[in-house]
Amino acid sequence: MILVLLGTNPYNFYRLAIAADEYAAESGEEVFIQLGYTKYSPLNSKFKDFLSKQEIMNKIIEADIIVTQGGFGSIADCLRAGKKVVAVPRKPELKESPDRQEELVRELEKLGRLMGVYDINELPEAIKKTKKTLFKRGDGHRISNLLNKFIAANK
């Protein structure tokens, strides 16, 4: 199963919701989308607007790959669980977020922790590559420390 996490901030992320739903139609794979505030009704994927923290963690554990928005919390939860992650940063210029997520995603990608997607049209190829890629793993504390240092340095 591919889990898609759009996060819980009060902004839409139509680009990722639509691309993930189209991927489900084209690939025939099971896709579950946590929509958050994105008002979109997937046609080819299971979905729910919001999940409890426990429900999200259960879905993360169940998933083979997680496609997530580029926020700290979602990425950290997925990496701590040792999952393969495709991260799509939200773009402030598209009114998807007030802050840039691209720097964090690029840094973690450079460190070999996840696959970043900066052009939504490349999502299907990124998912295929992620299935074959071995990512660097570490303990959850190291990941949290790395993310906290990055955030502190980029305030």
Description:
The chain has helices at 14-27, 53-62, 72-80, 102-110, 123-132, 140-153, and strands at residues 2-5, 31-34, 46-48, 65-69, 84-88, 115-116. With 155 residues, the protein is α/β, with parallel strands linked by helices. The protein has a single domain (2-153), classed as Glycogen Phosphorylase B (Rossmann fold, 3-Layer(aba) Sandwich). Helix 3 packs antiparallel against helix 6 (140-153). The mean pLDDT is 92.
Which descriptors apply to this entry?
6 helices, alpha/beta, Rossmann fold, 155 residues, six-stranded parallel β-sheet, 6 strands
List how many beta strands DSSP finds: 6
Query: What's the pLDDT, averaged over the residues?
Result: 92
Strand order of the largest sheet: 3-2-1-4-5-6
Strand residue percentage: 5-15%
Task: Give the name of the CATH superfamily.
Answer: Glycogen Phosphorylase B
- Strand/helix succession: EHEEHEHEHEHH
The rough form would be described as: globular
* Main beta-sheet annotation: 6 strands, parallel
User: Would you tell me which CATH topology applies?
Assistant: Rossmann fold
Instruction: Count up the domains.
Output: 1
**Rg, alpha carbons:** 14 Å
As residue ranges, the low-confidence spans are: none
Category by helix and strand content = alpha/beta
CATH class: Alpha Beta
Helix content: 40-55%
The rounded distance between the terminal residues' Cα atoms is 35 Å
CATH architecture: 3-Layer(aba) Sandwich
Number of helices: 6
